[in-house]
Design a protein that fits this description.
single chain, six-stranded mixed beta sheet, 16 helices, 20 strands, 33% helix
Length: 430
């Protein structure tokens, strides 16, 4: 009997599993990756030797109005480390520059001051000019025309009116945008509701190219990239994170070149062969990504890649912040997975309902697999209404899955499903 710790909220939950039943335990190589330098040293080195770009301090010369886009409370960007170094670089080029830190919320709720202090530190919150993007305030956005998909590009006017636009974030596999980081800071990060909705339409999510690890021909990524180029993102800082959300690599410089270098690193560290199991157990990596159920399809999509036909997926997600949005809750509890998918398929791109993409992904998975949700925060009756089976621990969930598949069922464990990129034997992303 082995004990495997599954990330859950701010801690872990134990899973007890017989060796003979274990088909594989899949982890990203990055979880064992030990950089030769400290986190600040990695970040400073990236800033001092940018990829495809001048140093940020040189770009900042003569620029009076600077906007620095950072991630919100649902992302693990180590801004306590990165923001002071980015601010210092900008002020080294222009000590009198007016800098606005713009928090990219997409369609998430606003980041609270308490969360900002936890993310950035008291000194930055007390001394810097911070603005939280609100996708639902039309007056905050300007129209920059059509994106490749035909969707109108409404973006926060602060990004358009500034002299220098800088973004920071982190890179990981993403279940429909290919990879996070880079251009995602702009779209969906600081776009208006209608632009985000169109980018995440049923048709876009249904594209065979809108999958984990795929950027080329991905319609969602193509719109995101076009949006970031149009607002002239001149410099990015993206990091790669290890098992404990620690910085293990940093990439700075040109929007596309620096992100591409980061993607190459992440792909090499996260890609592994997909191993099939009758039961697949995973998590969304713990806090902050498992704050709500809305975020959880990321890991469930990874688990699906390793789940045999008719198999069972066990998802550990604390959901300490609830379901994640009124639209998500309404749609995921609308009916059966088939009924949910049929309802969403009739919605044209320009009428996309906020948050509908997660019920769409869940419905696609739930049509083929039973999903057991391990949560000690969500009401279990609500979990059942969302077409899932509730459990309070990984062991309880495994016992339920055994009743469905039998004690001889082979089990694949992916402790952090967000960090793993499962690939078929043919080398194709699943």
């Amino acid at each position: 009997m082995k004990e495997i710790q599954i990330p859950y909220g701010h801690t872990t939950l134990p899973l007890h599993l017989e060796e003979a039943r274990t088909a594989a335990v899949l982890t990203a190589k990055m979880h064992a990756y030990v950089p030769e330098k400290s986190e600040p040293e990695l970040i400073r080195e990236a800033l001092e030797h940018p990829i495809g770009s001048m140093r940020l301090c040189d770009l900042a010369r003569g620029k009076q109005n600077v906007v620095l886009v950072t991630s919100d409370h649902t992302r693990a960007v180590p801004s306590r480390l990165t923001l002071p170094l980015l601010l210092a670089e900008i002020r080294a080029g222009n000590p009198t520059a007016h800098i606005t830190i713009l928090i990219a919320t997409g369609l998430h709720r606003p980041t609270t001051e308490e969360e900002q202090r936890r993310m950035f530190g008291d000194e930055i919150v007390d001394r810097e000019n911070i603005t939280v993007n609100n996708a639902f305030l039309p007056a905050d956005f300007v129209d920059l025309g059509a994106l490749p998909s035909g969707a109108n590009f409404w973006v926060n006017r602060l990004a358009v009116e500034c002299d220098l636009l800088v973004t920071e974030g982190f890179i990981e596999p993403h279940f429909f945008a290919g990879f996070s980081g880079g251009c995602k800071s702009i779209l969906p990060g600081i776009c208006a509701e209608k632009t985000v909705n169109a980018n995440h339409s049923f048709q876009a999510i249904a594209s065979p190219w809108a999958k984990t690890g795929i950027l080329e021909h991905n319609p969602i990524h193509e719109d995101m990239a076009a949006a970031a180029r149009r607002v002239n993102v001149q410099f990015i800082l993206n990091v790669a994170l290890g098992q404990h959300k620690n910085v293990v690599a940093a990439f700075a410089g040109d929007l596309e070149a620096a992100h591409a270098a980061g993607v190459d690193f992440i792909r090499a560290q996260s890609q592994c062969p997909a191993v099939q199991g009758d039961i697949v157990i995973t998590s969304n990596g713990g806090y902050p990504l498992d704050q709500n159920l809305y975020q959880s399809p990321k890991a469930v999509a990874t688990a699906k890649a390793c789940c045999a036909e008719g198999g069972v997926i066990i998802m550990c997600c604390s959901c300490m912040d609830g379901m994640g949005g009124a639209n998500f809750e309404r749609l995921i509890t609308l009916g059966t997975p088939e009924e949910i998918e049929a309802y969403l398929a009739k919605i044209p791109p320009e009428q996309t309902i906020p948050e509908q993409w997660c019920p769409q992904v869940y419905a696609r998975i739930l049509k083929k697999h039973k999903v057991i949700l391990v949560t000690t925060y969500l009401d279990h009756d609500l979990v059942r209404r969302a077409n899932m089976i509730p459990a309070s621990s990984p062991d309880e969930a495994l016992a339920i899955a055994d009743q469905m598949k039998g004690r001889a069922a082979k089990v694949v464990v992916i402790p952090d499903g967000v960090s793993v990129l499962a690939v078929s034997q043919r080398g194709a992303h699943i």
